Amino acid sequence: MGESRAVRHVTLQTVPMLDDISRAVLAREDVLKYPRERVHEYLDELRTTQRHGLYRALQHPLYPILRKIERKPPENLHHVTAAVRSHRIVYASNHKSHTDYLVEPLALDDNGVRPPLIAAGINLFGGPLGLIHRHVTGAIPIRRNMKDPAYLVTLKAYVTEILRKHDLFFYPEGGRSYSGELKPAKTGLLHAALQSERRDLVIIPVAIAYDLVLEDHILAHQQTKKRQRPFTRELAEMVRYAVGYRSRAFTTFGPPISVAGVDAHSRTDVLELARHVRSAIGALYKVLPTAVFAAAMRPSITRRELEQRIDSIIEELAARHANLGVTSGKQAVEAAAEPLETRGIIVAERGRFRVRERTVLRYYARTIEHLLVPPGRTH
Length: 379
Description:
Blueprint: H1 2-12, H2 18-26, H3 29-32, H4 36-46, H5 52-62, E1 69-71, H6 78-83, E2 88-93, H7 100-109, E3 117-121, H8 127-135, E4 139-142, H9 149-162, E5 168-170, H10 188-195, E6 201-210, H11 216-222, H12 231-241, E7 247-253, E8 257-258, H13 267-284, E9 286-287, H14 289-296, E10 300-302, H15 303-319, E11 323-324, H16 329-342, E12 346-349, E13 352-355, H17 358-366, H18 369-372
Helix pairs in contact: 2-9, 4-9, 9-10, 11-17, 14-15, 14-16, 14-17, 15-16
């Protein structure tokens, strides 16, 4: 009975979004030229609600996998706490794992910053989890490969109207990185945010990093994403690789990026802003022991040789002012060797390390590739 009253109380606090936002979208001149019925269908699909009380209450019972991730205190949170006082915020992050949707918003919520609405791939909206995303977490389903102009205009209009009342969290790469590298930023949602024409709008770059990514084997072996798979299938694979899985997660926030002077109607301006945001995210990315271990690894190498190679990489990264989470080759090997071996990625025998899963090892090496390539060769 008490639980029922609690749920009723939370439901009464539901953020009302559908009516006002739908009316505003339908009244927009750029939307009016498309068939009303089709726009209504897209709006019904985009509809989302965030019930903050339930969001907090359900995080552990519904997401037991979160218990396997040690969420480290967010870095540079002061950028957020200062900005939320007087700005509408669009958070832009790299995308490593489906667990990002939990870890990053909780980094805000745990510190008294209400989680923004999240733009997420529509493959996450099937079954019971889809109901949670749509009616609890406040996630907006995105059809990333949809080319229908009516959909694209409706989506941009919807995001524009959302930003009149709510902050937004999105992933400029579009989806998770299947190669491990930081992908080029797409401009669709960024363009939509600019169209809101809010003078107080800022973009806060965010970087998420894990010692081990839960889906590492799945992502690395698929390499390039050929088609959208049902999330239920991906979830089953994630459960398989969750056996024995443990990792730390680091969320790092950067200083706000002003959009003042950026012309939303100029493709050049939008592209330049997207590159700036990507560069900021890349600079924030936490360099962890598994990444430098993978970058320095050879098919077969002694511990001493590996430590020396890692020392050289760390020296280069330090010179580029990277966000280092490791300071020496010895520290990296001590921290990374056992989890990588347990994960089946390397083998340690007779004083040497050998590669067992080359594709997965390369996935981790590529996570810091953007910090090591010569200037001018980044996207």
